[in-house]
């Protein structure tokens, strides 16, 4: 087991007041983000990285481009967004800070859902 304390993460404070803790691993990254009310991230996309965003607290608006058309959706605590390779941005449209996790992975196109659902060994069978 490996434990990474927040104090061991790479911490960045951006000029707009956004705070990010980067937990970097060889095959994935997890970012813990705190974004102040009214802040809009820059538009961007990724060629190879899959981003999954989980809203923890507050509310965000996500905008993305699909078939050359701008779309948007409101997000709240508990909502999850699979960004895929879309051009996108997130904005804190609420009146308080929003907190969210970003999972960044480089996927290989394998369907591992069976493993993810079934790979659990009861303690009584270990050893």
Count the strands?
A: 9
Query: For the terminal residues, how far apart are their CA atoms?
Result: 17 Å
Q: Examine the secondary-structure arrangement and name the CATH architecture.
A: Sandwich
CATH topology label: Jelly Rolls
Which spans of ≥5 residues are poorly predicted at pLDDT below 50? none
Count of domain modules:
1
Instruction: Give me the secondary-structure category.
Output: mainly beta
Numbering strands along the chain, what is their spatial order in the largest sheet?
Answer: 1-2-3-9-4-7
Order of helices and strands: EEEEEEEEEH
* Rounded Rg: 17 Å
* The named CATH superfamily: Jelly Rolls
Number of helices: 1
Describe the protein.
5% of the residues lie in helices and 46% in strands. It starts with 9 loop residues before the first strand and ends in a 9-residue tail after the last helix. The longest helix is centred in the last third of the chain and has 6 residues, at 113-118. By secondary structure, it is mainly β. A hairpin with a 3-residue loop joins strand 2 and strand 3. It has one domain (6-125): Jelly Rolls (Sandwich), CATH 2.60.120. The model has no long low-confidence stretch (mean pLDDT 92).
Key structural traits:
127 residues; mainly beta; Jelly Rolls; three-stranded antiparallel beta sheet; 1 helix; globular
Sum this structure up briefly.
The chain has one helix spanning 113-118; strands spanning 10-13, 19-24, 28-35, 50-57, 59-66, 69-76, 80-82, 87-91, 98-105.
């Amino acid at each position: 087991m490996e434990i990474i304390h927040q104090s061991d993460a790479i911490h960045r404070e951006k000029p707009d007041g956004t705070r990010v803790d980067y937990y970097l691993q060889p095959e994935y990254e997890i970012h813990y983000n705190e974004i102040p009310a009214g802040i809009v991230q820059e538009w961007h996309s990724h060629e190879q990285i899959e981003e999954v965003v989980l809203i923890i607290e507050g509310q965000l608006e996500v905008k993305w481009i699909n078939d050359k058309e701008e779309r948007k959706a409101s997000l709240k605590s508990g909502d999850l967004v699979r960004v895929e390779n879309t051009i996108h941005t997130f904005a804190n449209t609420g009146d308080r800070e929003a907190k969210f996790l970003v999972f960044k992975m480089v996927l290989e196109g394998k369907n591992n859902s069976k493993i993810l659902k079934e790979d659990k060994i009861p303690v009584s069978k270990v050893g």
